[in-house]
Fold:
Amino acid sequence: MDVPAGTESPSPAGWVFPALFKSGDSWVAISEAGLDGSFHASRLQPKSVGGKYRIGTPMAAEVFTGGTLLAHGDGDLVSPWRIIALGTLATVAESTLGTDLAAPAKPFDGNLVKPGHASWSWALLKDDFTVYDVQKRFIDYAADMHWDYTLIDADWDRKIGYDKAKELADYAATKGVGILLWYNSSGDWNKTEYSPKSKLLTHEQRMKEFARLRGMGIKGVKIDFFGGDGQSMIAYYIGILEDAAASGILVNFHGATLPRGWARTWPNLMTMEAVRGLEFTTFEQKDQDVVAAHAAMLPFARNLFDPMDFTPMVFGDIPKIKRMTRNGFELAESVLFLSGIQHFAETPEGMATAPDYVKNFLRELPRSWDDMRFVDGMPGRHVVIARKAGDAWYVAGINAEAGDKTVQLDLPFVGSRRGMLIEDGDTERAFRQREIGGKAAVTMKSHGGFVAVFK
Structure:
């Protein structure tokens, strides 16, 4: 944020998409869309002398084992779309170019496309809690919150096993909850020992494994630790999506590249990480210290066109970390951040500290949105966005600045309706609620935020 044009990238990989620039009163977002597996993914080159930015290519290591780095062929090569969204901040923030220019949807059973919300133990509890009893408790937690899924993370095959995972899936089905399972993308690019590993590298392996999962009643997979943007690695992503779609399996790519419009083309692609999400703030205090500004940038950059698996929202404690955001900020992320499946980081114990009206808000929170409006904001400092689901409007705002920030809401699209506002209370962990209209002044505390619902 606030990097002068022409500055060399701190990484030899260059500047990733989407890249957001400000020029006078205009804003420019640059990205690409329409990767079909035949071309490598791109970025901006590290050096941009005089503010001239050029398309850059992946580095040599960014390939599937034995695969190619760059697009190649005997005939014509067709690059992805290169996108420039240009205009006011509202014009850019509301742009849909990233999906408009992606390929139309591939065939997939519409009855299996189920966006939703998920409980997930690993975000705060980490590896030691991926065990049967804890996962059963998180299924109960998802059911109590009226959420759709529980994600069981790495090493489930060794700590729980396939047979017991099926038992959990059967139990979850009685509660109206679907199970998602973690996989290691594997390959020479990835030295981690987390498993299941080496089960998805070929078409034959994938079809066998996905058929087994369908037989167990598993709804989807989270596949982690990918190796970059080379043509062969992009083709690997596409191969997984094709085989998962044929098998009726939903997909979340983690430790992955920017999806570049794939969520339109592949209805079974629910979300992708491609961001320093909440988990980074649970390892070192330095990442938690800057998370507020980072979160206030994401709706304008990483999450602008594509779903983002940030895994938001903590109301209680983060082990060994001092949380730097207020509860209103955390709650607002549930509306601000877009993800086909939103994996909430909070545990049952942390959720128990929230008042009933907050829990009910999260129980009733829409799974998908029909429309959005940019209301106010400045990237990295504060943002207020309104999202529509059916006849209801949800408005959310966060303030990343060191002082309080008052915004003047002017929401003509809600008409004469009155809304219920949930905002920060007098302490960092407190909430309060009050009624507001479509024209109202709302003061967000430093590192605080709000949500409002107009029905």
Observations:
- The mean pLDDT is 97.
- The first strand starts at residue 19 and ends at 23.
- The two ends are 36 Å apart (CA to CA).
- DSSP finds 14 helices and 20 strands in the chain.
